[in-house]
User: Fold these one by one.
Assistant:
Number 1:
Amino acid sequence: MARTDPFGRGRLRRLFGLDRSGAKPGQTRSGEPLRPWTVPNLIGYVRLAALPLFLYLALESGDGRSAPAAIVFWLIAAGDYLDGFLARLTGQYSRLGTLLDPLVDRLTILSGAVVCWYFELLPRWALALLALREVAMLLLAQYGLRNGVDVEVNWPGRISVFPIMGGIFCALVFAGWVPAALLIVGLALAILATVLYARRGLRAVRRARGLQAKPHSR
C-alpha cells in the first residue's frame, strides 16, 4: 500500500489526530502560498461567518440559554476538529489554514466568553483570565509571524480546547457546577500551554536571529 494512503498501517491514528509525531506538512510552513480554496479552509470560513449569528441568537435570548445559540456554538466548535480531519484525509494542507484555524478558535472562545460574561453564566474571574489568555496567544502568534516563527501547538493547548469550549457550551444549556469546572480545568491547561508556547517561541526567535547574524559576523 502506498505511503500516502491515509488508511495505511499506523495512519488511522494520524488521521484522527491522535499521532502528531510526523513532520509538519510542507504546505503549512512560513513562506508557502496561502492556498485559500481548500475544503478545510471553506469550513473555516463558515465557522467565522457563523460567529455573528451565534452572538445575535445568544444576546437576544434574554438569559443566554438559547437552544439555537447553543447548537450554533457547538457546530462552530465541532468545525475545529472537522477541518483538521479533512485536511489530514485529503492532504489539502495550506498556509492559510494554519493561520486561520487558531484565529477562529480564539474568536469562538472569546465570543462564548462575551455571552457568558454578559449573562453571568460562568465565573467572571475565570472568563477574565480566559480572555487575557486568548489575547496573549494572539499577540504571541503575531510576534512569531513578524520574526518568521510559527507558534507550534502543544498537547496541553490542544487538550484545553475541549473543556473550555465544552464548559461554554454547557453554560449555554444548563446551570450548575459542571460548566464552571470544565472551564477552570481547561483554563489551567491553557495557561500551562501559553507558558510553554512563550518559552519555545522565544527560543526559536533567538535561534533565528542568531542564524541571521552569523553571515554578518564573518
Number 2:
Amino acid sequence: MLIVQSSKGVRDRKAKISNQKSAINKLQPPFGAIFDWDGVIIDSGALHAQSWRRLAAEIGRPIAADSFIRGFGMKSARIIEEIHGWAKEPAEVARLTNRKEALYREIVSQSEIAPLPGVVEWLHLLREAGVPCAVASSTHRLNIDAVLDRIELRQAFREIVSAEDVVHGKPNPEVFLKAAERLGMAANRAVVFEDAHVGIEAGHAAGMKVVAVTTTHSAAQLSTADLVVRRLDELTLAEVVDVLSVR
C-alpha cells in the first residue's frame, strides 16, 4: 500500500525529527531504550489468559483468583509455583511452564496481533535519532520470536533479553541490567519502558529511569514511574532527556 504525504506534511515531520535530534544531542553517547514486551510493544494479555485457562483444563487444576493481575510481569514458572500452586518440584514446574508457553504460541499463530498504538512511530523516531533499543522481558524467547516477524519489528531491536537469559525474574533488576550491558550503556543512561509494577520496581532497582504506559494499569497505579503516558508516541526525545537529567 502506498501512502502519499503532502509536501507540508513531509516538511513538518522533518522539522519534528530535527528538533528531536537536537534534544538528544545533549547526551553523549545517546541513551539506551529498554522495552518490556507484553503490555508495552504488544497487548497479548487475552492470549496469555487463554493459554493459562487451557493449561488449567488440561491438568484439571483451578486458576487462582486474580492470578493474571497478580502475576503480571512475572516469569511463568513463578506464577505456577507461587500463585497457582500447581507444582513445587523443579522438573514439574519446568514441564508445566513449557506446556503453557507452547499453548500460547499455538494461540498466537491462530490470532490477529499488532503492535500497540504509538509503538511503531516511537521506535521509528528512536531509530532515526540513533537510540539503540532492546527488549528485556520475562517472556520466553520463542514467544517473542513468534510475534516479532509478524508485526515486522525485528529490525527495531538491537538486542533481546528474555526469560532464558536470566536467573531472577522481575522485580529483580537482572533483565534490565543485562539489556543495558548488551547495548553498551551504563544503567544511568538507560530508560525502561514498562507497564507493570514489578517492572517499574526492577527498573529503579537497576538505577534506571522508567516510563510507564497505561496499557494494563491506570496512571494513578503507575505513579511510582518517572513519567507516565497513555501511548508511546505521546513522548518526545526532549522529555526523555529531561527525565534522565533528574537525579
Number 3:
Amino acid sequence: MKLACCRICREEKPYKCPLCDKAFTQSRRLHSHMRLHIGEKPYKCSVCTKSFSRSTTLHNHERYVHSNKRPYQCPFCGKQFKIIHELKPHVRIHTDAKPYSCEHCTECFRRFGQLKEHLLKSHNEGTWFTCDICQKKFSQRGNLKSHLLRHEDVRPYICSECPKRFCTAAELKCHHLAHSDMKQFCCSICDKRFKHRYYVVSHFKRCSNRLGCSQSSPFELLKRKLDRPKVCWQLMAIR
C-alpha cells in the first residue's frame, strides 16, 4: 500500500494495458480495467438483469436505480443526491467553479465530459465513439453504449410502480416523477413549480417576457438568488 501511494505521488503508472493506452499505479486496477476489454462482468444486480465489471459500479447502480435514499445534500440549496458524483458538479453551479480548462483556448468547464466534448468539437482532439449502425458520434463511451440499447430494443431499467421499461437509468429517473407529487423545479419570478426542468425553462422565458424582466443566464440568475434558493429555477429540491 505504501509503495502504491508513493507511485501516486510521483504519478508513476507502471501497469500498462496491452489493448489500449491506459496505465495504472496498481496491478489490481489494471486487472479490473481488463474486464472492460474481455467483457467479463462478475458483479450481478440482485434486482434486475444488469451485471458489471466492477463492484463499485454495481454499488452505484443499486443506489442510483433501485434505491430512493439520497444521503448527499447540497450545503447551498438543500437538494439531495443519491451519489456524491452528482453532488460535486451541482455544487459548482453555486460556486461558479470551473476546474476543467482547455489548454488550447480560454474556455473552462464544470464537468470533465464538457471539456472532452469541447476538445473534440472545437480542436479536433480526442476520439469520437461512433455507432456502427447509424454512424451517430458520441464523446463518451458510456453514451454510445446507452445509444446501442435503443437499436437492440433492450430496456433493462424497470419501473417499480408500473410495467414500463427504459433503456437508461436517466429515463427511468425522469419517469419516476410521473408517480410522484414532487415538483423540484421552481420559477424564480412567480414561484410556480414544475416536475420537469424543460417545463420551467420554457415557462421562465414566457414569464420574464410577460413581466418585462431581463432573461439572465441560468447560472447568473442562480448566483443572485442564493439568499432565496427555493425560488431558483435551477436544480432545486423542494423539501
